[in-house]
Amino acid sequence: MCIIKIMNGIEIKKGLDRKITVSFPYNPSYIAKVKTISGYRWHTDKKHWSFPDSNETLKKILKVFEGEEIHIDSALQSQLSHSINAAPIPISTGKSHRTRCITPDSSEELRRELVLRKYNYKTVKSYIYFNRDFLRFSGKTLTNINDEDVKNYLLYLVEEKQFATSIINQAINALKFYYGTMLKKEFVYEVKRPHKDKKLPVILSKEEVASILSSIDNIKHKAILMLVYSAGLRVSEVVRLTSEDIDSKRMLIHIREAKDRKDRYTMLSETALEVLRKYLQEYKPVKWLFMGIKPEKHISTRTVQAIFEQACEKAGIIEGVSAHSLRHSFATHLLESGTDLRYIQELLGHKSSKTTEIYTHVSNKDIGRIKSPLDSLFEKENRGGIKR
Fold first, then answer.
1. Fewer beta carbons within 10 angstroms: which end of the chain, N or C?
2. Burial of 64 (0-12, 13-18, 19+ CB in 10 A)
3. What is the pTM for the complete model shown?
4. 71-123 pLDDT tens trace
5. Known catalytic residues?
């Protein structure tokens, strides 16, 4: 067993740019909580979240992280205490503590194995997080872990953390990979996966999509969202495009090593191409089609999401949508215009047709033609068929 010193809490500081900054080790639960506070912004280079500096915002941050270990700097503590309307909020300012965890060697071994198998960056980060968190929760060494420990941990994620089914399955995959594939333990295979939440995707109307795209003035931002919608791209796919992936002669976009490490081609819209050419002329990207802050790196998925949210706010679109909603809307609008489901499956890069069939549940192509019996009832009344 290895005992190492780590920081598990949330660190809240006052930045030099007069912003409140929040940082913590990768934790899906914390990320979800941060996103409930308006005005958040993720800084990839500094690895922290920032918020407008106000007492109201500070109180909201403390409220969502109530019960967690919080490290807040003296400047913000003083600011909060001097606030006239500041309500007493319990702050746990526990010091860094020691906890049982995967040894640095084991963690690096897990990372190397995942990288060698070409798992993407987010999956590597997630697998390491869940394996560390599992041992922290169990309080045991690697050799003493048993089936009951796994079940208790998953119950903790469901009941206390209230993670979605997709995240629970990700945790199972993480434990199964490390203990089953790498350490050859069999108990992980006995864990039953929870049924997936059968939620329908949020679909934007064509008018709403047009309103969102029209609200964007920045040519780079417009080109990104136009490509996502016009070609049905995942956000992780659009950020990794290069100039070579755009085939303007065949009007195709080459998506390389997408989900499940599969290549595919999807359509290139003439309207999107026109905007893209203006962008290329103005920005002249080198390696990546959409560069990040550093030219050698591509724009982050979080930045694309922020671009989309700002566009939605300008367009007055209701909450509950994300940049991925553009991909869902692309598929639904194609289906409603009469495109065969098999072609949509190819364009989206879905492995199974069952995944694509979800759009039949949100399309108004056929449902819109069905007349409600209530309408028929009152038609008869209007014709005198029903007496009052």
1. C
2. middle
3. 0.56
4. 887 667 666 655 534 444 444 444 333 334 455 557 788 888 998 888 887 88
5. 234, 259, 324, 327, 350, 359
DSSP per residue over 288-345, as a string? SSSB-SSTTSBPPHHHHHHHHHHHHHHHTPPSS--THHHHHHHHHHHHHTT--HHHHH
Contacts of 211 (CB under 8 A, 6+ apart): 315, 316, 317
Q: d(Cα 147, Cα 159) in Å, to the nearest integer?
A: 18
User: Could you tell me which residue, 374 or 128, shows the higher pLDDT?
Assistant: 128
d(CA 264, CA 314): 34
Q: Who contacts 83 (Cβ-Cβ below 8 Å, separation ≥6)?
A: 55
CATH of domain 206-360: 1.10.443.10
Q: Is 63 helix (H, G, I), strand (E, B) or coil?
A: helix
Residue 345 CA to residue 266 CA, distance in Å, equals 11
Closest CA to 12 of 45, 40, 49, 42: 49
CA angle 127/133/134 to nearest 5° reads 90
Tokens matching residue 242: 């290069």
CATH 1.10.150.130 fits 102-190, yes or no: yes
3-state secondary structure of 246: strand
Residue 95 DSSP one-character state: P
For residues 280 and 272, the answer to whether their CB atoms sit within 8 Å is no
Whole-angstrom Cα distance, residue 133 to residue 138?
A: 9
CB neighbour burial string for 37-57, b if at least 16 within 10 angstroms, e if fewer: beebebbeeeebbbbebeeeb
